[in-house]
Amino acid sequence: MSARRDPLAAGRLAGFTLLELLIGVTVSSLLITISMLAWKPMSRSTLLLRDRALDTTELRLAVESMLQDLGGADTALPTSEPDELHIVREQAVAELAGAWSAGADEGILYALSNGRLERRDVALGTSVTVASGLETFEVERVAGTETHVTLSVGEGLGERQVELVWPR
Predict the structure, then answer these.
(1) Which end of the chain is more exposed for a tag (fewer CB within 10 A), N or C?
(2) Within a domain: 128
């Protein structure tokens, strides 16, 4: 004898019911929503870390450029313009750079303009943006013997500040 199968019973075993599909879609939607809510704060913190790293890099570039120029400086003084630094190189350094003429070096000017720190070599007639995104660039002569240069990037908790002191 052969066993007869019920065609309706076979159809029910072959697929999902509409109720099962609706439950599956609802659960999937909830999981996607929860994962997106968790993703948003992580991406925001990643962007903040990236911005802080960029700010720190810009500050480092500015400091390295200024330290290189101050290393061979004869004088480093603020100018009459607000927040501008004038560096005059020692004769040997100026001669190597090709900036020594008529017994003097016209020097290098550092100034902040629209968040960009500009380095202008007056003697050579060149100008370059050393760093961008700087918030402050302050130059001050202290007690007539030291020049203090303060640079900062970022705001609030992300602010980074460096002070260079040139003792002559």
Answers:
(1) N
(2) yes
